[in-house]
Design goal:
The chain is built from ten helices and five strands, in the order αββααβααααααββα. With 256 residues, the protein is an alpha+beta fold.
Length: 256
């Protein structure tokens, strides 16, 4: 009798699970998505934030988000809207820092260009425009000089800074820190030293940030406002730049 009752109970459970599998949940707004991030890890890395690193938010923000990425990675591009969602939701409670980890051939050139733009206070505009024109970057690496001109940079100073030892050392510093932390793929993010890999939805980052801030109610996120990068820059006719041609990026998008 016990064996039969157990079999019947198992059969009922199986039918119930099968029926549940065919129930399609009602689609909810982006703000209602459930976080899929793993639990907040106990391991905490001491992630450095050097003076050259571009950042948004106050230095004394209780949560620091350090993103390692590069400009030929399509998954890194997806992080832009997510970071805007986090900014909108948390405001001065978070600080966002961008550092570089080059994984695609040719991406080093664009990291140097962005750091050179940062010297003229134009990092975030340059950063957004590089991602906006990502497919052009794969075809015409020297495009950065036209972009610098469009954004109103001193192009000659930009060219000098881009090839300078100081900017190269900044990129080398980012790469060395990424190596020390074991960052092999991008994007990789550290939230107060806790590593979260991949281009994840804002809810995943929010789950950890809420816990670090001691918030009991999950933060709700609304779709980010569309970014307003400069108009796409016509790639034809850009200057050749110094140092010769830069090799085209040949790595497939999925290898990041």
């Amino acid at each position: 009798m016990f064996a039969n009752r157990t079999t019947k109970r198992t059969w009922i459970l199986a039918v119930g699970l099968l029926a549940a599998a065919f129930v399609t949940p009602a689609a909810g707004p982006a703000s209602a998505q459930e976080a899929t991030a793993p639990p907040l890890p106990e391991d905490v890395e001491n992630v450095s934030v050097p003076g050259w690193s571009p950042r948004l938010g106050p230095a004394d923000a209780p949560v620091t988000i350090v993103v390692f990425g590069e400009y030929l990675c399509p998954f890194c591009k997806r992080m832009g809207p997510v970071l805007r969602q986090l900014q909108a939701a948390y405001g001065d409670k978070i600080r966002i820092v961008y550092r570089f980890r080059v994984v695609h051939s040719g991406a080093e050139e664009y990291a140097l260009a962005a750091l050179a733009a940062h010297k003229q206070g134009k990092f975030w505009a340059f950063h957004a425009a590089l991602f906006e024109n990502q497919e052009v970057l794969r075809e015409r690496p020297q495009f950065v000089y036209r972009l610098a001109e469009r954004l109103g940079l001193d192009v000659e100073q930009f060219r000098t800074d881009m090839r300078s030892e100081s900017v190269k050392k900044q990129l080398e510093g980012d790469e060395a820190e990424a190596e020390r932390l074991g960052v092999s793929g991008v994007p990789t993010t550290f939230i107060n030293g806790r590593e979260l890999s991949g281009a994840r939805p804002a809810e995943d980052f929010g789950a950890w940030i809420d816990e670090l801030l001691g918030l009991d109610t999950p933060t709700q996120f609304t779709p980010p406002e569309p970014s307003t990068p400069p108009e796409p820059v016509e790639p034809a006719g850009e200057p050749s730049g110094e140092g010769g041609a830069v090799p085209d990026a040949a790595a497939p998008p999925g290898v990041d």
